[in-house]
Write a structure and sequence with these properties.
The longest helix has 12 residues. The protein has three helices and no strands. Helix content is 41%, strand content 0%. By secondary structure, the protein is mostly helical. The protein has a domain of 32 residues.
Length: 74
């Protein structure tokens, strides 16, 4: 589904961006990048070495993963 871009020039639709941290703002743009999305989705595949992919994402996108997130049941 294509997002409605007909009102993209209305500045009040972007007022929330003024309150974002640098990390939050970077995430808003990164998550819309098809190449990043492809790399992120590959993390869930079983035919990909997660260590090598993590290094690729770290180098290509400038991201760091200092530790794994806790398991939701923990």
């Amino acid at each position: 589904m294509t997002p409605d871009a007909s009102q993209w020039r209305i500045s009040t639709h972007y007022d929330h961006l003024n309150d974002l941290t640098a990390s939050d703002l970077a995430w808003e743009w990164l998550r819309r990048n098809d190449d990043y999305d492809h790399d992120f989705e590959a993390l869930g595949r079983t035919d990909v070495d997660p260590q090598l992919l993590t290094e690729k994402i770290r180098d290509q996108w400038g991201l760091r993963f200092p530790c794994r997130s806790p398991h939701p049941s923990a």
